[in-house]
């Protein structure tokens, strides 16, 4: 059942990301921000805000079993994986594991960007 909830939420989240990021980017095309990916930035920040609200509302209460698979993993996972990255980093930070939170940020960003470069390099190798 959880897999179905994740599937449904993920599809809806992906559609929402596509719609919102396309709409915001379309508006940005008429401004000096036309070269900056403001549409995806909007989705990432909104997703972080929404996952904060979700965990804030349900962490200390009896949570229906469908909430996190449908909304956190599914919808917000499809809307942006950055929200999960931010929530995991927050959890490390408030647990007093500041060094691990900073390591997670550094490794995720640096290695993620390096992996993209490597993937592109490997597929364009002559």
Short description:
With 126 residues, the protein is mainly α.
Largest sheet descriptor: none
Shape: globular
The SSE order reads HHHHH
SS-based structural class? mainly alpha
Radius of gyration: 17 Å
| Structure annotation, total helices | 5
Terminus-to-terminus distance: 46 Å
Give the number of DSSP strands: 0
β-strand percent reads: under 5%
Assembly type of the chains comes to single chain
Pick out the low-confidence regions. none
Give an overview of the whole structure.
With 126 residues, the chain is mainly α. The protein has a domain at 2-80. Helix content is 79%, strand content 0%. The chain has helices at residues 2-28, 38-58, 67-79, 82-94, 98-123. α2 (38-58) packs across α4 and α4 packs antiparallel against α5 (98-123). The N and C termini lie far apart (46 Å). The mean pLDDT is 91.
């Amino acid at each position: 059942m959880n897999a179905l909830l994740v599937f449904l939420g993920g599809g809806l989240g992906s559609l929402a990301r596509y719609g919102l990021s396309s709409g915001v980017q379309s508006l940005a095309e008429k401004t000096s921000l036309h070269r900056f990916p403001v549409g995806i930035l909007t989705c990432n920040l909104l997703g972080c805000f929404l996952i904060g609200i979700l965990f804030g509302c349900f962490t200390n209460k009896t949570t229906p079993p469908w909430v996190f698979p449908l909304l956190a993993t599914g919808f917000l996972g499809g809307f942006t994986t950055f929200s999960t990255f931010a929530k995991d980093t927050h959890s490390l930070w408030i647990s007093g594991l500041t060094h691990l939170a900073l390591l997670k940020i550094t490794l995720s960003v640096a290695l993620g960007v390096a992996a993209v470069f490597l993937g592109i390099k490997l597929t364009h190798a002559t």
